[in-house]
């Protein structure tokens, strides 16, 4: 008789298991079949993460994800037509738009005009179908994580973007990956992208995510970002999913020697959002600025969970996260900085601030430092509080009505994060988005 | 009445300790305040060129650098710069009644002169000012029409500018007894 303990599976876990077995036949010749199988086994063993799993303590996915939606099919003509308008938030930013509809790369909506020499942009599904060895070998290796949500992405990933920028190439304009959900029913999208940036290259990479407010669709997006030595990359992620959407995204990034990454996430949309970042300092003397701003209300739940791994010496890291919370919204920040024994002279600072506009809003902060080297500077700070009454009084005493005074102070609070964006047009667009959020607050 | 409503009706308080507002540029702050008051009074908002011109003139008189106006309100300003910024706000908002709360505190003599000059420029029959101070020194520069002595929240003596000089010579002790 077997003494095996059987876990009770939730409906969502059952549905994911069924979806995976149904998909297996189609993936018989997939070059990642073994990786997918292993990833799914990890999920099957652990199930959906819940509050007793430390990394998911504040985001009980098992409770928040009651059902697993069916995998989204390829977009139809109507869906593609709807996606033409996507990414409007950045309409004033001169960028190369690469459009993914329901997770599927759509060349006819994408802009390949005057592509810089040394830059290739293509479909992940096509690269895998063609057995592109370089890509197959890279997938899952840039900054590996054993996170279960990332494992689900590996198991189910359909399409995505493969972007390669050769050594020494400077992009003339930013590349904007537009992720639009357009299906007419709620489904699940698993997109996986790989971006490889060569030595000394310079690039601005934007991704935006959006969808309708009336569907409880699910997105599990993952991006592997490999940054070569001496390369400089600005990566901006804009989360404006529909108000019922579940959005999980995992950024797995590796930073080469003396490379520079400026990462920023800006979130206003989605019912449940989990932004995961796994950053590995792979080469010495690299610099990263990681910033985030969330403006949320109602019952929105936005979780930022970050693991920054200093493997080698001389890395510099600056992390600044701010959330503005109204209604009964809930912001979570978990930031772990690991300094390995070889990572002497690491200089890492992490700051997280929450601005609570209502009594019912909640912000949870969990900074963690794991330091195994003895010649490092590491620090963290966390604050949560309401708007400063003295400042409000000062503004009101000058004739500024309460609501406008609050908006000015909130704008200033978020402004410190947006200031880390180098490009004026991009910073302006996000500042406008913050203003729009404040106006909608009423 | 809310503080912003009082301000729109022409009341201005120059703070003893003006606050720093990181992230809100002084220009944005001034423009928001001015236009909010104008809106409330049913007046048209100022256009950007009109506003800029007004600020340039007022800031010039107070020896305030344009660069300072681009920075966050009072952020990194010295005590004197903060007080000049208060007077700049008063000059732009053109109140009917201004209360200057210990405007002389924390000022060196040069800064005091600049601030006082700014205040004197704004004196007019259409505007009343209440200057609160513990010292005669400020009143050498801002010469008052009337001096009131307050003790325990009540006016205990009223006189001309010479009353302040008398106080400087004899102290406040006499009034504290009277008030009691």
Helix content of chain B: 40-55%
Uncertain ranges of chain A: none
Strand count of chain B:
7
Structural class of chain A: alpha/beta
Order of helical and strand elements of chain B = HEEHHHEHEHEHEEHH
Mean of the pLDDT scores of chain A?
95
Instruction: Give the largest interface.
Output: A-B, 21 and 26 residues
Morphology of chain B: globular
Mean pLDDT, all residues of chain B: 91
Q: Tell me the radius of gyration of chain A.
A: 21 Å
N→C terminal distance of chain A? 64 Å
User: What's the N-to-C terminus distance of chain B?
Assistant: 33 Å
Top CATH class of the largest domain in chain B? Alpha Beta
Say which CATH homologous superfamily of the largest domain in chain B is assigned.
P-loop containing nucleotide triphosphate hydrolases
Could you give the count of β-strands of chain A? 19
How do the strands and helices of this protein lay out in sequence?
The complex is a heterodimer of chains A (about 450) and B (about 180).
Chain A: H1 11-24, H2 33-46, H3 61-64, H4 77-83, E1 96-101, E2 104-105, E3 119-123, H5 124-129, H6 133-138, H7 148-156, E4 161-165, E5 175-180, E6 188-197, E7 202-210, E8 218-227, E9 232-240, E10 246-255, E11 260-267, E12 272-281, E13 287-296, E14 301-310, E15 316-325, E16 330-339, E17 347-356, E18 362-371, E19 377-385, H8 389-397, H9 402-418, H10 424-441
Parallel strand pairs in A: 1-5, 4-6, 5-7, 6-8, 7-9, 8-10, 9-11, 10-12, 11-13, 12-14, 13-15, 14-16, 15-17, 16-18, 17-19
Antiparallel strand pairs in A: 1-2, 3-4
Chain B: H1 3-8, E1 11-14, E2 21-25, H2 26-40, H3 48-61, H4 66-70, E3 72-73, H5 79-93, E4 97-101, H6 109-121, E5 128-132, H7 137-141, E6 147-151, E7 154-159, H8 161-170, H9 173-179
Parallel strand pairs in B: 1-4, 4-5
Antiparallel strand pairs in B: 2-3, 6-7
Helix pairs in contact in B: 5-6
